[in-house]
Design a protein that fits this description.
single chain, MetI-like fold, two-stranded antiparallel ribbon, membrane, transmembrane helix, MetI-like, transport
């Protein structure tokens, strides 16, 4: 057996493929060299100019498209990162294979042996690697473009190719927090987004837990019937329900004002209720969409909690009954802790979903009524404000990108903190 110099193998792999050739893996070495040459050719004929254009964003209007330059530059960044990962893997591979040879282990040399090695030892990587590569270019790529866009002056006065874009640093972020007009709008929209997220999500969780606990009681008859009824809001497409509720809450002809309040005034004339301005008064619009989201969102919680309740041993409740525990004590000491222990991460996802629940806000009343400035309506949340910033008569693409980044940081940061506190990522016993 020929002993391989591990350090030499790793030094040779500074040029990808040479370390593999030194280890006797001709096919792998030639493949690595081809990848190296392909990247060098791509960088010479396109990559270098892509990086240069990303820095300058063009110099001649109507000839240089700054947006395309940004996109191509971002793509080149990702390609370079992928090559760097490959390069590091190549260094590790040369060293690892040399160690295997010195330890008397068999390494692959032919196509057949390479295929068998991938199937036996790297099947999981073989399956997941294409998914990771696809994720890089379908998820990371758009996010990175948005990140870069937030640091430009991409607005209605600078739309490529008629106008060139310029790098402006953190100006969009400073404008949002320190420029009076944008600061007031951001504070109003962000404040309502937090209120909406907390109230709507908490309401749907409370309704879901309450219906599941009540329906799970032994004395309740027709559980299947109630189960079907509770699932109806989930079965009907959300946009259909929201548009229907938009008509139901109509100020002048909606069922709430005409039928429900009208019937109340007929039956209880001494407690007369005036028609409520659901669609034209910001406060009542907010109340309406919170109630609607509670109705739309509780079935999912109901189904999940029902499964959790059925998994709680009856012995716990029987023992608590023998100890003299009341219904509320059993709920507080057994049912609720079990629910939160299992479902806390799911509850977090419900909060993050509603934080970006565009359809509920926009379909009900287009984010109105009222106007809090910078194209934002009285009930707009951050995500619907972003939509209006990019589709209005005076689009502010870079500002919308900056708001998007703030949303991402908030949602990801809070989610990670809560997941860590609830041990959602732990796979212990």
């Amino acid at each position: 057996m020929q002993v391989k110099d591990v350090k030499k193998a790793q030094r040779l792999s500074i040029i990808p493929g040479l370390g593999q050739l030194y280890n006797g893996q001709t096919i792998k070495g030639v493949g690595f060299i081809i990848i190296l040459l392909a990247f060098i050719a791509e960088f010479i004929f396109g990559g270098f100019s892509a990086f240069a254009n990303l820095v300058t964003l063009g110099s001649v209007s109507m000839e240089d498209n700054s947006l395309f330059m940004m996109i191509y530059g971002t793509l080149q960044i990702l390609l370079t990162i992928v090559f760097i990962v490959f390069y590091i893997a190549n260094l590790y591979d040369a060293k690892h294979v040399a160690q295997l040879i010195n330890n008397g282990k068999k390494v692959s040399h032919t196509f057949k042996e390479l295929g068998a090695s991938l199937v036996d030892g790297g099947f999981a990587y073989l399956l997941t690697t294409p998914a990771y590569i696809l994720m890089v270019f379908t998820i990371v790529f758009p996010v990175l473009v948005t990140l870069l866009m937030a640091f430009t002056n991409y607005d209605f006065a600078h739309i490529p190719p008629a106008m060139l874009l310029d790098w402006i640093g953190f100006k969009n972020f400073t404008s949002m927090f320190f420029l009076s007009s944008y600061r007031a709008t951001f504070n109003a929209v962000f404040g309502w987004t937090v209120i909406w997220t907390v109230c709507a999500t908490t309401l749907q969780i409370i309704i879901g837990i309450a219906t599941a606990v009540i329906a799970n009681q032994n004395f309740i008859k027709g559980k299947r019937f109630f189960g079907v009824i509770f699932l109806l809001p989930w079965a009907i497409p959300a946009f259909v329900s929201i548009m229907s509720f938009s008509n139901i809450f109509n100020d002048s002809a909606g069922a709430i004002n005409v039928q429900v309040i009208g019937l109340w005034n007929t039956l209880v004339p001494f407690a007369h209720i005036a028609p409520i301005h659901w669609m034209t008064d910001t406060f009542w619009t907010k109340v309406a969409i919170i109630m609607i989201q509670g109705w739309l969102g509780f079935p999912y919680i109901y189904v999940m909690i029902t499964g959790i309740l059925q998994a709680i041993p009856e012995d716990l409740y029987e023992a608590a009954t023998l100890d003299g525990a009341t219904v509320m004590q059993k709920f507080n000491k057994i049912t609720l802790p079990t629910i939160f222990a299992i479902a806390a991460p799911i509850f977090v996802t419900q909060y993050t979903f509603n934080f970006n629940n565009f359809s509920m806000i926009y379909l009900f009343n287009q984010g109105g009524p009222g106007d809090v400035g910078a194209n934002a309506g009285g009930t707009d949340i951050l995500i619907s404000w972003i939509y209006k910033l990019t589709t209005g008569t005076s689009p502010q693409y870079s500002l919308a990108a900056a708001v998007t980044l703030i949303i991402s940081v908030l949602v990801i940061g809070i989610s990670l903190i809560v997941f860590k506190k609830t041990h959602a990522f732990e796979m212990g016993d």
